[in-house]
From TrEMBL, chain A:
Enzyme nomenclature, EC number: 7.1.1.9
InterPro entries per the UniProt record, alphabetical: CcO_II, CcO_II-like_C, Copper_CuA, Cupredoxin, CuRO_CcO_Caa3_II, Cyt_c-like_dom, Cyt_c-like_dom_sf, Cyt_c_oxidase_su2
Name of the protein this chain belongs to: cytochrome-c oxidase
Principal location class: membrane
UniProt family annotation: Belongs to the cytochrome c oxidase subunit 2 family.
Leading EC class: translocase
UniProtKB/TrEMBL annotation, chain B:
General function of this protein: Cytochrome c oxidase is the component of the respiratory chain that catalyzes the reduction of oxygen to water. Subunits 1-3 form the functional core of the enzyme complex. CO I is the catalytic subunit of the enzyme. Electrons originating in cytochrome c are transferred via the copper A center of subunit 2 and heme A of subunit 1 to the bimetallic center formed by heme A3 and copper B.
Catalytic activity, as annotated: 4 Fe(II)-[cytochrome c] + O2 + 8 H(+)(in) = 4 Fe(III)-[cytochrome c] + 2 H2O + 4 H(+)(out)
Protein name as it appears in the record: Cytochrome c oxidase subunit 1
Family matches, as Pfam families: COX1
UniProt entry keywords in alphabetical sequence: Cell membrane, Copper, Electron transport, Heme, Iron, Membrane, Metal-binding, Respiratory chain, Translocase, Transmembrane, Transmembrane helix, Transport
Gene3D superfamilies: 1.10.287.70, Cytochrome c oxidase-like, subunit I domain
Length: 338, 643
């Protein structure tokens, strides 16, 4: 119900304010981006409702001001007009302060109510996600689970999930527009927010506090799925990584374990236990490489390993001198880690 | 209600004018160019320099918009983009908006209050040179690839030595500390000029709104700027000498930076917008052929904004996790501050509704201002509301919001001011046709650039990203914004063309082309070095519309308002504008320039860690200052000691 409302309203919004942009908006909507106007979570829905209230108040006041302006420009411009020298102080006070105070008090009250509603979930969350911001990726762990993933947060749908936020370097901001407003990650502090997805789906999130060179490539995906699927996924996350099936994957694993990769990356159940970069135990199943820099496919993976600096300049991973012959095996191995 | 120029012409005789000219004229030599203390020349220089910096910052924006026209573009590298957006913001705020408005203040405040110069003409010259050098200091870092790259807000810990090595942030902290000297000097000068140098009879309730706005702004500068200076000094010390103010690992606090920055930063929004609102209050009534409605309310609004603006800074930090109670308080204060602006909007509308409107280019820009500033005001209220703020802050929605406030609220009035006062400043009329083309290009371009950003922000696009993936619904809005940016750029170019055209080919401007009400229209275009042959006596809020003003400068004018013995102007009492005494004004001098060069040397030395150079610069500065302040040798009679 609410989502069709949103579509109807966003059409009105376009018709009212951007005129000829209608076609463009529709073409834009086809992508299904991380729109705050297409909420799928408790917090974002609350703010979306608030936005439309504020929007329509603004439209009404704007029309009022423009009507007065146009009236003056049309009717007070004739050369035969006599200048009226009265001082309508009462009009100015009522229109400029009296009416605004009433409107502002109202929206302020609603704003406080929404702020309170956003501060704590209605039921205590059963799942806690530990998210750590790095320049420029998100480390994702779950309380009580020994595994880690990156730039992807799986949550059960239909219940609140606590998200604990830390940063190891600079400030970042955790933002999933369709689920919840922002929470800044502050150096030296642990921040908390919560997500409550109302329907299964994938919701794009992105760092919203400028964090340096690759601030543009610090995206993540929140995947909301039914509780049973989530539990299975979480169990998989805590288990050792898959062992290679094919010869190519085995050769790839050898190459991996024999290279500098292990100094920075972990693959659970192997000798690779580095903690500088993302845990690669499930890298093959992830939605992207480099926190949204490129899609996760064989070609991009090879390019990333050989020289990620051409893909995401400034990221912490130096170019790897991998033998061209060994690269396909390495790719096959990493893609098998799901 | 234009005044009659013939009456004014019947003022003091040619002998008086000759003596005044001899006293006040500055030699047309190269040395004279560098040593001037004339507020009008200094004001013009502020305007031209700030306009050039606006051009640099504008081209930075065009480069960014070109990069963002489509997804995954590679026109700029991430490093270049981050430097450009940081310099765009820093320059627009610090090197364009305030100096531009201070430029108008410099030119206009002495004229509007009926004085012959600013209270401290040499300090005024010094302020300009410091502004120029600080601006060049910061812009020179761009071709060197060492421009600030931490955003105009420079949040720690990103901007500390560990995360951003190199000179980038040292240019930022030192450049702003350097520039702050100029801004503070200017603010003090405006306050003293407006309180002590007003024409006799100009009690506080007869001071033009523009002057009120400049004075209120100056008080805000004096209270807000030290906080920014402190913040920058701490960051410089952290970066250069490893102090630990912002290092959480060693007992520092990163939010301290944000608090200090925004305790300055939010008042600064009004430091920019308020003189611009003053311009609107000066221009709009003249084209409505009546005095502004509710003058006392407007003045009270100005003062109220100046005070309340110091209590709203936390709305820039609604996502940082401060206590809910604190959010509630700052949300309330941020909501309340819109009311004085609302009062002013309706006072202007009432003025229009009661007047007889004459549409000229300055008025068009005022109308453009009202339309855009109102939209910026709506989104401003939205950002005062914590929950909404948390969703849209740091998205393109906020970029749209503050461009409606700052472009709508400051640049439109500045453009109105350029067209409105160009005849007074240059003595030439601009081309109305060119001006109208420019207005429409700018109005359409501005809205086309910034309106779509509301939408891309609501669609989840964060700000300060050098690129974005396609297919998220952001592409068309970004393309529209880029097209708009080029239209806007073309319009602004046309303004420059219009000004050059006016200077070269413009018809000579009459003294009072618009029928204005404030005292700058009571003198010649451009004004003579002494501004007024006879300092007028003021009897009402609209002196030029009041025949008694012209009478006061007519044949019956007394010697105590002509003052031909040396450079002199008048002291009057702060509140009532009662005649106190004549005061002597300084001659032109090179000392302000030399002092500014000394300071430049200090800051260049600090930047490159050449501390002996900095020390030498400091010595030059201190020595010049000593010479500057050294009391002139006077006999007891000259010093006013009774015999």
């Amino acid at each position: 119900m609410a989502s069709t409302d949103a579509v109807v309203r966003s059409r009105r919004f376009v018709a009212g304010s951007a005129g000829g942009g209608l076609l463009l908006l529709l073409s834009g909507c086809a992508g299904g981006g991380p729109s705050t106007l297409d909420p799928a979570g408790f917090g974002a829905r609350r703010v979306e409702g608030f936005w439309w209230l504020l929007f329509w108040i603004s439209v009404v006041v704007f029309v009022e001001v423009m009507a007065l302006l146009v009236w003056a420009l049309v009717f007070r411009r004739r050369p035969d007009r006599r200048v009226n020298r009265s001082e309508p102080t009462r009009f100015v006070v009522v229109a400029g302060a009296g009416l605004p105070i009433v409107v502002l008090l109202t929206v302020y009250g609603i704003g406080l109510r929404d702020l309170a509603a956003l501060s704590t979930p209605e039921v205590p969350p059963a799942v806690t996600v530990e998210v750590t911001g790095h320049k420029w990726w998100w480390e994702v762990r779950y309380a009580g689970v020994d595994g880690a993933t990156a730039n992807e947060i799986q949550i059960p749908v239909g219940e609140p999930v606590l998200v604990r936020l830390r940063t190891v370097d600079v400030l970042h901001s955790f933002w999933v527009p369709q689920l919840m407003p922002k929470t800044d990650l502050i150096a030296g502090k642990v921040r908390e927010t919560w997500l409550h997805a109302e329907r299964p789906g994938e919701y794009r999130g992105q760092c919203a506090e400028y964090c340096g060179l690759q601030h543009a490539h610090m995206a993540f995906l929140v995947v909301a799925r039914p509780r049973a699927e989530f539990d299975a996924w979480l169990a998989r996350l805590g288990a050792p990584a898959r062992t290679p099936d094919s010869d190519a994957e085995r050769r790839g694993q050898q190459a991996f374990l024999g290279s500098a990769c292990v100094a920075c990356h972990t693959v659970r159940g192997t000798a690779a236990t580095g903690t500088v970069g993302p845990d690669l135990s499930t890298v093959g199943a992830r939605w992207s490489l480099g926190a949204g820099a490129v899609s996760n496919d064989g070609g991009h993976l090879g390019g990333w390993i050989a020289n990620s600096q051409t893909v995401k300049p400034g990221n912490a991973m130096p170019p790897q001198p991998v033998d061209a012959a060994a690269l396909p095996d390495l790719i096959a191995y990493l893609q098998s880690l799901r | 209600m234009p005044s009659s120029t013939t009456e004014r012409g019947a003022g003091p005789g040619t002998e008086v004018v000759e003596r005044l000219t001899a006293e006040w004229a500055e030699p047309p030599t190269l040395r004279g160019w560098f040593s001037t203390v004339d507020h009008k020349r200094i004001g013009r220089r502020y305007l031209v320099t700030a306009a050039v910096f606006f051009g640099f910052a504008g081209f930075s924006a065009l480069a960014m918009r070109t990069q963002l026209a489509g997804p995954e573009a590679e026109i700029l590298s991430p490093g270049e983009y981050n430097q450009l957006f940081s310099m765009h913001g820093t320059a627009m705020i610090f090197l364009f908006s305030t100096p531009m408005l201070f430029g108008f203040g410099n030119f206009l405040v002495p004229l509007m209050v009926g004085a012959r110069d600013m209270a401290f003409p040499r300090l005024n010259a010094f302020g300009y040179w410091v502004f120029l050098f600080a601006g060049l200091f910061m812009w020179a870092s761009v071709p060197a690839g060492a421009a600030p790259n931490g955003g105009w807000f420079a949040y720690v810990p990103l901007t500390d030595e560990r995360h951003t090595p190199g000179l980038h942030l040292d240019v930022y902290t030192l450049g702003l500390l350097f520039l702050g000297i100029s801004t503070s000097a200017g603010a003090i000068n405006f306050i003293v000029t407006s309180l002590k140098l007003r024409a006799p009879g100009m009690s506080l309730n007869r001071v033009p709104v523009f002057v009120w706005a400049i004075v209120a702004t100056s008080f805000m500068v004096i209270f807000a700027l030290p906080v920014l200076n402190l913040d920058n000094a701490l960051l410089f010390l952290d970066r250069r000498f490893d102090t630990r103010f912002f290092d959480t690992d060693r007992g520092g606090n990163v939010l301290l930076w944000q608090h200090l920055f925004w305790i300055f930063g939010h008042p600064d929004v009004y430091i920019i917008v308020m003189p611009a609102l003053g311009i609107v209050s000066a221009v709009l009534p003249v084209f409505c052929r009546r005095g502004i409605v509710a003058y006392p309310l407007i003045v009270l609004s100005v003062v109220a904004i100046a005070i309340i603006s110091f209590g709203v800074w936390v709305h820039h930090m609604f996502a940082t996790g401060l206590p809910q109670l604190s959010y509630g308080f700052f949300s309330a204060a941020s909501t309340i501050i819109t009311i004085p602006s609302g009062l002013q909007i309706f006072a202007w509308l009432a003025t229009m509704l009661l007047g007889r409107i004459v549409v000229r280019v300055p008025f068009l820009f005022v109308v453009g201002f009202i339309v855009t500033f109102v939209i910026g005001g709506f989104t401003g209220v939205m950002f005062a509301l914590t929950a909404f703020d948390q969703q849209t802050t740091d998205s393109y929605f906020v970029v749209a919001h503050f461009h409606y406030v700052l472009f709508g609220g400051a640049v439109f009035p500045i453009l109105a001011a350029i067209y409105y006062w160009l005849p007074k400043i240059s003595g030439r009329m601009y081309s109305e046709r060119l001006g109208r083309y420019a207005f429409w290009l700018i109005f359409v371009g501005m809205n086309l650039t910034f309106f779509p950003m509301h939408v891309s922000g609501l669609l989840g696009m964060p700000r300060r990203v050098y690129t974005y993936p396609g297919g998220l619904g952001w592409d068309p809005w970004n393309l529209l914004a880029t097209v708009g940016a080029y239209v806007l750029g073309l319009g602004l170019l046309l303004v420059a063309v219009g000004v050059v055209h006016a200077l070269r080919r413009g018809a000579p401007a009459p003294d009072d082309p618009w029928g204005g009400d404030s005292l700058e229209w009571a003198t010649s275009s451009p004004p003579k070095p002494y501004n007024f042959p006879v300092l007028p006596r003021v009897h009402s809020l609209h002196p030029v519309w009041d025949p008694r003003t012209a009478e006061s400068t007519g044949p019956g004018a007394t010697e105590d308002r002509i003052l031909t013995d040396g450079r002199q102007t008048l002291f009057t009492s702060e509140l009532d504008g009662r005649y106190e005494r004549a005061v002597r004004m300084p001659e032109e001098t090179l000392k302000p320039l030399v002092a500014a060069i000394g300071l430049l040397t200090v800051f260049v030395g600090l930047l490159f860690a050449w501390y002996w150079v900095a020390a030498a610069g400091g010595a030059l500065f201190a020595g010049t200052l000593a010479g500057w302040l050294w009391p002139a040798h006077r006999t007891p009679e000259e010093a006013g000691v009774p015999a």
